[in-house]
Amino acid sequence: MVIGLLGGSFDPAHAGHAHITREALKRFGLDRVWWLVSPGNPLKPRGPAPLAERMAQARAVMRHPRVVISDLEARMGTRLTADTLQGLQARYPGVRFVWLMGADNLAQFHRWDRWQWIMTHVPVGVLARPGAGVRGRTSRAAQSFAGARVPEALAETLDG
Questions:
Q1: Pseudo-torsion of CA 8, 127, 97, 119, nearest 10°?
Q2: Which of 45, 50, 130, 142 has the most Cβ atoms closer than 10 angstroms to its Cβ?
């Protein structure tokens, strides 16, 4: 089983999130995508809307039989992506997880806690979002891991 993970505050969830989710399902050979609606983003100065509201809106925006809208991070007690990924890998040892992000997030990925650990322990699928492609491709994270980049055509054939 290969599960794509799209994390974020989803404040608000919108058609762009749904678009990159459908693209990830198609391009990366994923069995499922889990939207991880975060309890809060440590990099944002103000807190998001209440979790229940964001979950309801996410469910209204993304209706797909292979997509699960989840408050898993709140239930696990994690706020940092690396902690969430470690917890998921321990709970689901037979599942291959792929972290999904828009190119806009790749541009500032080096600010995330343990971003290098994430890049070395989980495949990362980056999807273009309008206006963020160049910043994403020239970001510190993209430059640091340029040698690990694979062509899209090979993405679904990789082993974790």
A1: -90
A2: 142
Neighbouring residues of 156: CB distance < 8 A, sequence distance ≥ 6:
2, 27, 28, 29, 30
- pLDDT confidence band for 61 (50 / 70 / 90): very high
What would the 3-class secondary structure string for the chain be?
Answer: CEEEEEEECCCCCCHHHHHHHHHHHHHCCCCEEEEEECCCCCCCCCCCCCHHHHHHHHHHHCCCCCEEEECHHHHHCCCCHHHHHHHHHHHCCCCEEEEEEEHHHHCCHHHCCCHHHHHHHCCEEEECCCCCHHHHHCCHHHHHCHHHCCCHHHHHHCCC
Compute how many other C-beta atoms are within 10 angstroms of the C-beta atom of residue 45.
5
Query: pLDDT averaged over the chain?
Result: 85
pTM > 0.90? no
Q: Each residue of 112-134: pLDDT tens digit?
A: 999 999 999 999 998 876 554 54
